[in-house]
Each structure stands twice: as structure tokens, then as C-alpha cells.
Design goal:
9 strands; single chain; seven-stranded antiparallel beta sheet; NADH Oxidase; 246 residues; 8 helices
Amino acid sequence: MEKYETQREFMKSSFGRGAESDQNRGLAQPPLQKPRGQKAETIELPLFGEDLIVESNVFRCIAERRSRRDFKDEALALAELSYLLWATQGVQEIKGDNYATLRPVPSGGARHAYETYLALGSVEGLQKGLYRYLPIEHSLLFLYQENNLAEKIKGAAGGQDFAGKAAVNFIWACLPYRGEWRYAESSHKVMLLDAGHIGQALYLACQSLGLGNCALAAYDQQRMDELIQVDGKDEFTVYMSAVGRV
């Protein structure tokens, strides 16, 4: 079992020991949201209300949560996607002088080190392709069109069929310096915990809409990073989840 010792130590708390953080050194913090190009095409997401919810009983949502992989060949409504994005990473408040954001999910030190990418196969009113969520504006940034998206997602997800059949795949990429700036070498465990919070929020939000989803941690790192066009060093895929009608 000695071969696992390093990974086991990584799971333990390291707060109170290690290098001084860039925050304590007085260095400027990274932006709360990944910048976008001035000429980038954005899509404003619609407002949603409680009338969208088909299961409002929290007990039932928790009790009936399951990973679901058998998706119907039916599109999601844009309002449903809007709600799912808000429930997982939407910005409710900006604290201080752009110091931190408050969102429906917790994050260590309110760092929220993740960007949400969407491999969008079937959502009403949107073309197939890759998008990035802009949580401060609650809008989508169109990245590029991909007609062979289903096969590319399936391949990057290790050949898992349901990922290719999903209406949309949520892909969460980490910008590690957002956490490192505050917590230095203690940040990485915290950021992995944050991914779990986001994933569970999506499960419960899907359950409340009567949708199905299944989280994935098994994927080809290089292929997934290439699909969402990140460098694999200062930003890289950590977690994803396939969503569809069931």
C-alpha cells in the first residue's frame, strides 16, 4: 500500500503549513471571471421562475437522486439550461471591490476557481457547438460550431455512449491560480472539493426539473482540454456531467 501514500497525504489538510500565499504578499488577485474577447458572440440567457420546477420537494429530490445515462432524443428548453447554469455557478452577489462572488454553491474562500463549458448537442434555439458560461452576466459565450460533436465528446469521454447522446455536457475547467492566489499549496484539495459541490448541485437541479444526468471523472485529459480549447496547464478539465431528458 506504500504506493498510495503520496495520494493519501494529498487528501489531508495542509492548512497552517507551507508557502506564503500571493494574497498575503499583496499581489493582485486573478479576475473573478475568465475574460472574453471584445468581439465575441454572446447569448443572453432567459429568466426563469418556479413554474419551471416539476419537483419542488427537497426531500424527494435528495432521496431520488441517481446517475441516469439513458437519455431521450429530445432537446432541452433554453430556460432549463439557464436554470441549471445558475444553480451550479450563477453569481448572486459580488463582494467588496470585485474581491469575491457569492453563488448557489460553496467554494473555499469564495474563490470559485471553475469555468463552465458546454458541449451543446440539443438545446432549443441554440446551434450545436462549444460554449462558455459567463456567470457574472448570466449569458453564454459562443466558442465554435462542431457538427461532429457527439462523436468527439464520446471519444474524449473514454467511449462512454451516453455522453455522446446527452443534450448537453457540462465541462468544468479549473483555473488553479484563483485558489493558489489565496491558499498557495493548500488550495488544490480545496478546489477538488469545490468540484464535488458543483456536481451535486447539478444533480439536484436536474432532479427538480425531471431531467437526468450523470457525472464523469473518467475522460481523456488531453482530448477534453483540446475540445474546450484550454492549455492544460493554467486551465484544465477536472469534472464533467452529461444531461438529458429521461
